[in-house]
From TrEMBL:
Pfam families: Glyco_hydro_30C, Glyco_hydro_59
SUPFAM superfamilies reported in the protein's UniProt record: (Trans)glycosidases (SSF51445)
Name of the protein in its database record: Uncharacterized protein
UniProt GO molecular function: glucosylceramidase activity
Keywords: Hydrolase, Signal
Gene Ontology cellular component annotations, sorted alphabetically: membrane
Claim: Electron transport is one of the keywords in the record: no
Residues in Glycosyl hydrolase family 59 catalytic domain copies: 55-326
Species annotation: Candolleomyces aberdarensis
Length: 472
């Protein structure tokens, strides 16, 4: 503990018992890559084609760190249909010269990636839901089927693995030329779930019979900086199986991240057994009409529900990234599978967006989660050291009452602190318009009795709460 006493914030004269947690800033855990969304399946185009004012509001809600969630990852879909694939037609055989088609827009995903880049977003995850039909056992880019040539799956037309790897690499090349380099590349989406739109089946061993080909193709094209992702399984349980197969098959040396969706099991303890990073790449509420609620009864569309899911994913499941399905949609009020709604004119953020904000605004790409000890009743928390040497502690209070905690550090001396807390999700939103309503406190640490052996004299602390008090 580097400082001995400080009681600087109080609200409404409440006197509460104080719990202490200790954050070990020198004890580094996983690196955080960020938080994000997709605008796949024409949603980027709707976004681009919105009127300038709602479009700008939508972008700000998603990517602005002061007025929005400050998201830092885009997940783009690599098309596989005859109208959106860069290789829409079969060249005739796997070794024939492919005729690529590139319209420079990629269903407006290039536009979205460039707009996000203006806010500092540099992490672009490009993911194929399927290979084109002619490369597959079912000759269809939908309804499952396998990539011809993977373990146990052959086709009369030949082995298309290298052609698929070439196509994916060409896609990466087009994005590099457009000025929005792809950083992560996946070739499967829910390979353990067959649907009537773009889908392709695989298990971990079949993925392992393709990954080295993709790796070598990227290397040969000088895309040594692109991380291969696998396998976007439908849920955490399936991802565990994929991970074990991939690790056994020696794939860690070719891959960058293990990826999971959360439809059939949320990421939670224990972490996957791999030395690679783990990302949750697609989750959403598929059952509710549009709802903007922060908290009502713990329902699947509510903000606090997602704050908890993100908390468990990052803290219990060792995730480095958490991605909601869609970001911005227009006139889709039958669904809550996205974060920001537009009716074409009025733009409305959801409680889910603010759940992402309380993480993504404060825990920035390159941050390391750090160890901590001590618990607060009914409150989850995670502590992070950002690249700018600020330390952020994110608290999620699931109880109905205010909580009070003192934060102590080892390996760190805070010179000043900011606490952000919110008793209802709308406070987060109102903060953007009216500082007086938002409970904001800038805590001055300069007169705190600090131990001068602290390794960082000029650090900053940010604590984020939902429903609570923070005493430091
Ligand atoms: C990765 O390398 C490629 C090829 O050298 C380059 O075009 C691209 O900008 C790099 N990506 C990043 C994120 O720097
Ligand atoms: C890869 O980079 C090397 C060294 O800069 C260069 O000689 C080679 O032509 C590049 N290969 C491709 C496919 O761009
Ligand atoms: C957490 O993930 C990192 C990779 O980001 C890995 O090195 C580490 O072993 C994982 N920790 C646990 C407890 O699984
Ligand atoms: C913090 O407190 C010190 C000592 O009381 C004072 O000199 C300094 O101006 C304060 N800083 C801010 C930003 O209020």
């Amino acid at each position: 503990m580097r400082f001995t006493a400080a009681v600087l914030a109080s609200l409404g004269g409440l006197a509460l018992a104080q719990t202490q947690i200790t954050v070990s800033v020198g004890s580094l855990l996983q690196e955080i890559d960020g938080f994000g969304i997709s605008q796949a399946f024409t949603r980027a185009r709707e976004f681009e084609e919105s009127d300038p004012e709602p479009r700008q509001k939508g972008l700000d809600y998603l990517f602005n760190t002061e007025t929005g969630a400050g998201l830092t990852i885009i997940r783009n879909r690599i098309g596989s249909t005859t109208t959106d694939a860069i290789l829409p037609r079969s060249p005739g055989s796997p070794t024939a010269t492919p005729q690529y088609v590139w319209d420079g827009s990629d269903s407006s995903q290039v536009w979205l990636s460039k707009e996000a880049r203006k806010y500092g977003v540099t992490t672009i995850y490009a993911d194929a839901w399927s290979a084109p039909a002619f490369m597959k056992t079912n000759n269809n880019e939908a309804n499952g089927g396998y990539l011809c040539g993977v373990t146990g799956r052959t086709c009369a037309s030949g082995d298309w693995r290298q052609t698929f790897a070439n196509m994916l690499t060409q896609y990466v090349k087009y994005y590099a030329e457009a000025g929005v380099p792809v950083t992560h590349l996946g070739f499967l989406n829910e390979p353990d779930y067959v649907v009537s739109y773009s889908s392709m089946q695989s298990d971990g061993n079949q993925a392992a019979s393709f990954i080295p080909t993709l790796y070598n193709t990227l290397q040969a094209a000088n895309f040594t900086n692109v991380s291969i992702a696998c396998c976007d399984s439908i849920g955490w349980g399936g991802t565990r199986t994929f991970t074990n197969q991939l690790v056994s098959a020696g794939m860690e040396r070719y891959m960058g991240i293990m990826t999971s969706h959360a439809y059939n099991g949320d990421p939670d303890a224990p972490p996957l057994s791999t030395r690679l990073k783990s990302w949750q790449t697609e989750a959403c509420d598929l059952n509710s009409r549009w709802c903007a609620t922060w908290y009502s009864n713990g329902g699947p569309c509510e903000g606090l529900t997602w704050a908890n899911k993100i908390h468990r994913g990052i803290v219990n499941a060792n995730l480095s990234a958490y991605i909601y399905w869609q970001g911005f949609e227009v006139n889709q009020f039958q669904a809550s599978s996205y974060l920001v709604a537009s009716d074409g004119r009025v733009v409305t953020p959801s409680g889910r967006l603010w759940a992402f904000a309380m993480w993504s605004r404060f825990v920035r790409p390159g941050a390391r989660r750090v160890s901590s000890s001590g618990s607060v009743s009914g409150v989850g928390y995670g502590a992070f050291k950002n690249l700018d040497n600020s330390v952020a502690v994110v608290f999620t209070n699931t109880g109905s009452g205010a909580q009070n905690v003192r934060i102590a550090f080892t390996g760190y001396t805070a010179s000043n602190a900011q606490a952000f807390w919110s008793t209802t999700w709308t406070d987060f939103d109102r903060y953007n318009h009216d500082d007086h309503i938002y409970h904001y406190s800038n805590i001055n640490y300069s007169d705190i009795d600090t131990d001068t052996t602290g390794s960082m004299r000029r650090g900053r602390l940010r604590a984020v709460w939902w429903r609570g008090l923070v005493w430091m």
